[in-house]
Amino acid sequence: MKIDKLKKTIKYNIIIFTLLVILISFLVFLYYYLNNSYLNQYDKIIMDIAQIKNEANEIDRKTTENKKYMDLWSKINENRKSMAGIKVDDINKTLTNLAEKYSVSSPVLKVSVPESYPSSIFKNENVTLIYSILEVNFTSFNDVKAIQFANDFITTLHGYPILTKFEFSKERDYEVADYYDISSGKLLGLIKGRIIVSWYTYKESMASNNAPKK
Amino acid sequence: MLSNKAIVILIGNNGTIISLHAGKKHETFDFIEKLNDENKPKILNFFNQNKRYPIYFLLDTIDQTYKKKSYPKMRGSDLEKIIKRDLASDGDKEGLKNYLILANKRKAEKKTSTLKKVDNSLNKSDCLFITSSKSEIITEWLNFAYELPNRIIGIYMMPVESFNFFKKLVDGNLSSKNQSILKFKDNCIFCLVTQTKSGGARQIVFSNSNIVFTRIVNYNFNENNFADKYSQDIYSTFEYLKRMYIDLTIKEFEIINVLPKNVCENIMQHKNIELNITNHSVRESADLLKLSNIQIEEDYFDLLMSSIFVDSKKILKFSNSRIKIIENYFFIIIGSYAFNIILLLSLILIMIFSITTNMAITDKIDKAQIQKIGSLNELSKVKKLSMQGSFMEEGKEISIEKVGDMGRVEEALGKYLPNFLKTYSLMSFSRDFDIKFNFFSYSLIDFNTHNSNNNTKKQLTLIGKLYNKSGDIENLFTEFDKYIIQMKKSLPDYNINYNDLPRTIDFNQKYYDYPVEFRIIEK
User: Fold this and answer.
1) What is the biggest distance separating any 2 CA atoms in chain A, rounded to whole angstroms?
2) pLDDT of B201-258, one tens digit each?
3) At what angle do helices A3-73 and B321-385 cross, to 10 degrees?
4) CB A169 to CB B409 under 8 A?
5) Residue B178 phi, psi dihedral angles, 5° rounding
6) What is the dihedral of CA B383, B386, B392, B393, to 10 degrees?
């Protein structure tokens, strides 16, 4: 047996061995690469399916919600839907008129600076809600007028004026001299009233103008 | 090597016999007196046709020497080191050299042989050095064989390897119905007398475990005094053995002739009666060893020996550096083939695994794609059925989203819108009682202006006086209780907190009015 031939055979075998090792390494690499790629592809599809299902559920939920709110929409007072915002002059005017109507004296209005109500609270996307606190202090001759004044004042406000506090007190009972003083204008009344209202109202915004159209 | 497929090149001083053995197939090439350019192509052709078969060299040459040497008893590995050192120190660097460590003397003496030897010390190890000079004929054949495509396994000495033949022959004799006196006995020494075409006649002396020595005998079977010469040779061999085995008797010295039938008959006619001789012709031996398909030529031992050699476990291999290199390369090739086969199988397995795994994943992907398409269809259906976009109301376009936004605000805040008057009017029953309040308060408890889900409650606070015209304390209690009962009746959705009239009150005193305070909280 020729040594050269044996050496050649060994050389060929080593080459085949090396090729096989390279091929196996390549195959293993390819296997992991493809496997990983396929798994990623599979995961992506599964994620897409989950996303599609979520979207469908969200649309479904919104549809149900929209149906519910469409029913509610017709029941919502137009005054509440108003987009007039907060105009202090208008409130003062209303207050003066009501004070005159119910013989309420020296109504003092305090209005906090209106602020944009965070949209995250009611998940508003298409309307802007603004918020302010109103405080009215007044003097009245009797409790009935004071209550009617307070009630009318709140009723005339658009949006959602929530009466968080209303109190009135009478320091003492009227005496005969008090009636004289009232008639002469010296006394404005013995009933002291205080109204605090948390007022939420809509304001026209860019978002509402850009609402999607059918 | 136990392969029974091989080519044996039996080299003797008279010539060479090449024989191929493959199971029951035994093929002999022509007897080659000398390797020359004329017969080389023919021989080469023979080997090329049978290149799958490995080559064994079997030497039946004259220049083989067998020397026994004793060493002090020592560990096997140490003994081998010393023997190898002794072998290396031998002057003939080119010659073929090897050794046989004879059976452990202590054990051999006790179990297998009762023969008393000259040097019978139990604390010695015996070694048989076997050497053969690398004669021209061997060198020629080896150089020729190096160029052959067949694998050379090694060089073997015919006398050493003929122990297997001897053993089989003895075993065959024992199992045969044709009983002879030949059998293994603990204290026997055997002398095998054979004749090969390549090497001539030879005496080979065995103990029951291995070769003791061998010598070439020059016989001419046609000579008249052949039998006498034969007997003389046997006696001289016996005398030589007596030097080693002092207690050896002629009866314990068994002679086995594997010679032509007429020669055996001649020997038997003239032999001394005390000689213990068993005769077998080569054909008979072959039949006894169940090798009847061997073509025996002129009762020569060559082919039978080669056949037995191929079929038996080899006893002692001789080698040279070239054969060792070939052997190493051969094992490297075998190893590399094995590795490559393993790698190839791994490759196939990995491929199958990759394909099946990837198919499984792609199958999953296909199913997921189908599922995705189903989901997309479902989504488009839901989108079609969904309430989106806008609608017209009194000439104004209202988006559904705006409706949703306002609806949520209405849901959260609408419930607090003015019902204050309604709440206040719940107290109208007070007109039926002589009671006057000088303080009234309405408030929402825990109202958080920045929370969509308030858990707020209404609270009314009334502070005033309960009047009692009679001043009688009992009337005061009665009126107060009546008022409370009426209040609870009118305000069932509220918890009413108030201070009871004190029971420790002075009953002799008149009470025309009494301060009261009510805190009314929504349930």
Assistant:
1) 147
2) 999 998 877 888 898 888 888 888 888 888 888 999 999 888 888 888 888 888 998 8
3) 10
4) no
5) -80, 80
6) -160
Q: Are A5 and B410 inside 8 Å of each other by CB?
A: no
Mutate to test the interface with B, among A10, A35, A69, A74 (most CBs of B within 10 A): A69
Do B520 and B471 contact (CB within 8 A), yes or no?
no
- Distance between CA atoms of residues B35 and B45, nearest Å: 14
Report strand pairing: B55-60 vs B152-157.
parallel
Interface test with B, best of A1, A17, A124, A132 (most B CBs within 10 A): A1
Single-letter residue type at B230: Y
Tell me the C-alpha distance between B264 and B255, whole Å. Answer: 12
The helix/strand count (H/E) of chain A reads as: 7, 5
3-state secondary structure at position B89: coil
The pair of three-digit structure tokens given for residue A10, joined into one six-digit string: 């060994």
Tell me the per-residue pLDDT of B358-406, one tens digit each, with 9 for 90 and over: 888 889 999 999 999 999 999 998 888 877 777 787 788 888 888 888 8
Q: Which residues of A touch B361 (CB under 8 A)?
A: 35, 38-39, 42
3-state secondary structure (DSSP) of residue B81? helix
Q: Is the ipTM of this complex over 0.85?
A: no
Residue B393 parent element (H or E): strand B390-393
Per the CB < 8 A criterion, the answer to whether B44 and B148 are in contact is yes
**Closest A-chain CA to B400:** A66
Judging contacts by C-beta atoms under 8 Å, the chain A residues touching residue B417 are: 80, 160-162
The β-bridge partners of B189 are B253
DSSP B414: G
DSSP characters over A110-141? EEPPPEEPPHHHHT-SS-EEEEEEEEEEEEES
| Cα three-residue angle A77-B440-A89, rounded to 5 degrees | 45
CA distances from B170 to B164, B263, B455 (A): 10, 21, 115
Interface A:B, Cβ pairs < 8 A: 252
Provide the whole-model pTM: 0.60
Q: What are the residues facing B398 on neighbouring strands?
A: B391
Sign of CA dihedral A6, A9, A15, A19: negative
Residue (of B333, B3, B395) closest to A17 by Cα position: B333
Q: Residue B470 phi/psi, 5° resolution?
A: -75, -20
Angle between helices A88-101 and A143-156 (to 10 degrees): 150
CB contact burial B184-218 (16+ within 10 A = b; e otherwise):
eeebbbbbbbbbbbbbbbbbbbbbbeebbbbbbbe
Which amino acid belongs to residue B92? D
* Cβ B512 vs Cβ B467: under 8 Å: yes
